[in-house]
Structure to design on (336 residues):
């Protein structure tokens, strides 16, 4: 089918989700809309890696993955600002305008993808370098034990990205009793830090094995989560600890995101890039289901239990990346 067509299909799914929310205003409509929008995300990100890898040079993967991830964050911030303008018209009208604008964005993205797909590009490798393979399913993907292990580790890594974002507002407002504006400000700081790192931080990851960059990301997240342990000790220390922790979370993401996008492309045969990427992208769906449960369970024990759990997960993940470097045998490649 090809990555451009899959991305086009993903945008159609997103448009269908928005139309369902606009015109089918009951529980069934919202359920169908949520299904289509979730399918849009999973389908798009599964095709994202092979799409970019098929266009960018092998030595520029992290640079382009970082730029595109950073552009995504810029879009998220613009969407947040636009939503504030829409809600001036009232809650009901504002929500409908927001869904309409989102649907139009899928139409624009679809048009751009279809226009770009018409431009003929040179193949990433010559036929002599990569002979044509018959179409294969997921059996060779699952038979690649190194790939399956790294996809499993991606569940832990994405959990380290999702869980702090979910639990920080509860931690700040319920446990620390700090002002209500603080979670939003820290969320903006996290987004800004990750965006700057992704857009301009190609040198952060250059020249190292990709697994080593993922190990560094996990270690940075461990330090960031450890910083949150200091927040309950004193009010004056709380603000410093929270800002430091958020900055470290954003820095870790700048190491992780472009590397994780490039890793399946480095591991996979050319004809299986999409399936390798899809296996790695499953981590997000699993983590999104686990993170709220983990956060609620840990917070019920105590704030320290939450952050200690995440520190332990981060350190274990960093160690696992170091251990698996041997079996990978250099297939992860060096960041260009």
């Amino acid at each position: 089918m090809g990555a451009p067509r899959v991305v086009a299909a993903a945008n159609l799914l997103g448009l269908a989700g928005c139309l369902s929310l606009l015109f089918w205003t009951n529980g069934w409509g919202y359920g169908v809309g949520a299904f289509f929008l979730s399918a849009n995300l999973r389908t798009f990100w599964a095709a994202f890696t092979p799409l970019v890898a098929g266009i960018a040079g092998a030595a520029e993967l992290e640079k382009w993955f970082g730029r595109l991830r950073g552009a995504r964050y810029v879009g998220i911030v613009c969407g947040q600002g636009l939503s504030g303008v829409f809600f001036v018209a009232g809650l009901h009208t504002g929500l409908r305008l927001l869904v309409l604008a989102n649907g139009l964005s899928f139409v624009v993205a679809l048009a751009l993808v279809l226009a770009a797909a018409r431009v003929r590009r040179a193949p990433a490798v010559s036929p002599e370098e990569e002979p044509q393979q018959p179409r294969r399913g997921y059996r060779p993907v699952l038979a690649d034990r190194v790939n399956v292990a790294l996809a499993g580790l991606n569940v832990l890594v994405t959990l380290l990205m999702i869980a702090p974002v979910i639990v920080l507002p509860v931690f700040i407002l319920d446990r620390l009793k700090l002002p209500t504006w603080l979670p939003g400000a820290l969320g903006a700081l996290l987004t800004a830090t990750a965006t700057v790192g992704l857009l301009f931080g190609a040198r952060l990851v250059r020249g190292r094995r990709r697994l080593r960059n993922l190990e560094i990301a996990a270690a940075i997240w461990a330090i960031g989560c450890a910083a949150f342990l200091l927040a309950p000790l004193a009010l004056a220390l709380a603000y410093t600890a929270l800002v430091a922790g958020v900055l470290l979370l954003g820095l870790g993401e700048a190491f992780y995101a472009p590397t994780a996008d490039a890793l399946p492309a480095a591991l996979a045969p050319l004809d299986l890039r999409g399936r390798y990427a899809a296996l790695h992208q499953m981590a997000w769906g699993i983590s999104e289901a686990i993170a709220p449960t983990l956060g609620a369970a840990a917070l019920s024990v105590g704030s320290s239990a939450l952050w200690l759990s995440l520190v332990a997960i981060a350190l274990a993940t960093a160690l696992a990346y170091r251990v698996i470097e041997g079996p990978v045998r250099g297939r992860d490649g060096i960041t260009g």
